[in-house]
Amino acid sequence: MTALRLPPEHFRYRALIGVGGIGSGTFFALQGNETLGREESRLGRFLDRRDYCKLHIITHYVSTLLGPDFMTLPVGRVGSDENGHRLLKEMADAGLDTRFVKVSAAHPTLYSFCFVYPDGSGGNLTTDDSACSTLDAQGVAEAEREFERNRAAGIALAVPEVPLGTRTALLGLGRKHGFLNVASFTSEEVLPALDQGMLDNVDLLALNRHEAASVARTRSEGYPVEKIVATVVSSLAPRYPRMILSVTAGSDGSWIWDGRTMSRVPKIRAAVSGTAGAGDAHLAGLIVGLAARLGLEQAHELAGLVASFSVTSPHTIPPGVSRETLCQFAVHSGVSLSKEVKELLE
Question: Which of 163, 275, 270, 258 is nearest to 208 (CA)?
Fold first, then answer.
């Protein structure tokens, strides 16, 4: 059994409805750790890694760990191409409800080219004319009946790789129907989203170090992440006193602000095969923990465990993720889990 052993009545929420990227990509290992220059040519090699996009990664973890009694419903678009049909099958095989993932004949499936430096850092280039870019507010509105059916018992998830207007529409439906609204933004999006008032409808904001630095209007490299997090809290808390803030910072661990106090979970030592997708795994673990009625501190602990487990695989969705493998990973890593998290995994 791969899912957590929870009876349906134990769930705090019954469903997740989300928008964001559904696509695939390629990993390319660069030679040399120097940052790639604007007009530079550099040698490298393709890696045997499977890349997935944000909504797919997060919802895969949620569906796998919460099981069939929890509805995980992505709303999105893929192309009528080999990648699109393969991704739809993989999502369905993982238990995702794909009724609202439509196939576009006019646009290709979202694709990313990920580059990796020898030190493990890197970035990605993503197509901006994909099927995902065509998902609009009308497409989101098609799922409103599911919002109505799960009123006050659902999670609305809005993550990058679909337009900001599409995410605004989803968060609006989430607020209208009493959902827990969860969102993340790229470094380039987060300030425009703030200016547009999108955060008015966000209950949980997930950022990585770079995105948090954008909010703090400071650099991310060479600047203490603790100061970045503190600056983000001081900037957002007066306007959004009830919003939960999650910040991931790779080897420095992660922080969470609940509106009153800050807590940190250090990174678990693990053999790193790939760091891409770790932030999405962290957010998925946080969502799973909250849906399973863990307190925020314990859900944050579970999120750190899921994120650390994710880096042991070269793929952005580890093929073997389950309740059992997470439990085994915790034991082998010598992690001292809280009673609540330990009971959830056993």
Answer: 275
What Cα–Cα distance (Å) separates residue 222 from each residue in 115, 118, 225, 278?
22, 19, 9, 21
The total number of structural domains in the chain stands at 1
Residue 122 resides in a domain: yes
The rounded distance, in Å, linking the Cα atoms of 171 and 151 is 14
CA 204 to centroid of chain Cα atoms: 12
Q: How far apart are CA 25 and CA 314, in angstroms?
A: 13
Structural tokens at position 335: 């992690």
Query: Is 54 part of a structural domain of the chain?
Result: yes
Q: Which helix (H) or strand (E) holds 44?
A: strand 44-46
Stated pTM of the model: 0.93
DSSP-assigned beta bridge partners for residue 76: 101
C-alpha angle 329-334-337 in degrees, rounded to nearest 5: 80
Specify the CATH number for the domain of residue 115.
3.40.1190.20
DSSP type of residue 269: P
Beta strand pairing status for 154-158 and 51-52?
Answer: unpaired
| Residue 197 region by backbone torsions, left for phi larger than 0, else alpha for psi between -120 and 50, else beta | left
Q: Which domain holds residue 157?
A: 13-35+44-164
Q: Which two tokens stand for residue 179?
A: 């959902």
For the chain, 346 residues long, give each residue's pLDDT as a single digit of tens: 578 888 888 899 999 999 999 999 998 999 999 999 999 999 999 998 888 999 999 999 999 999 999 999 999 999 999 999 999 999 999 999 999 999 999 999 999 888 889 987 778 788 889 999 999 999 999 999 999 999 999 999 999 999 999 999 999 999 999 999 999 999 999 999 999 999 999 999 999 989 988 988 877 677 788 888 889 999 999 999 999 999 998 878 899 999 888 988 888 887 777 778 889 999 999 999 999 999 999 999 999 999 999 988 888 999 889 889 998 888 888 888 899 998 898 8
